[in-house]
Amino acid sequence: MALQTSIQPTVTSAMRDAMLKALTTVPTGPVAGAALSVALIKDQTFAPNHNSTVADCKAHECDFTGYAENATAVFSPTNTSAPGGRSITSAMDFIATAPVAPATFVSNTVYGYFVYSGTNLVTVEMLPTNLSVPIASPGDFVSLTVLVPLDALQGA
Length: 156
Prior knowledge:
The protein is mostly beta strands. It has one domain (10-149). Helix content is 10%, strand content 35%. Strand 7 and strand 8 (120-126) form a beta hairpin. It is globular, with a radius of gyration of 16 Å.
């Protein structure tokens, strides 16, 4: 699969407000909290918005065999020449595994992802339909690089 650029990530109102507040002070730690988690979305009808919550996203989270959210995602500051300029990024893989007998393989199609810290939803993005990723058998995987632009301060 070729490298794709985010089309329309949604930064939540709470995260936008935290980023704006951070611009007026010298940060002493990460804006979103100490630990960010990344999870995948399996429901193509899910329509997140600026008021979506972690619970909203978790109701549509993937559950293919071997899936686990990435609760140890390490985000690093990144400067890019792309629109948005400064951002934080993290790369990770989600890999389907063979089920343990007598269980059967659970498949999903990945339609998006979300980033959160505790109950704070940082960002959520649905992929265009032509970029959805089918997870149909053991060994299928999603290799994801999440880029959260710090200049993407969208209004509520």
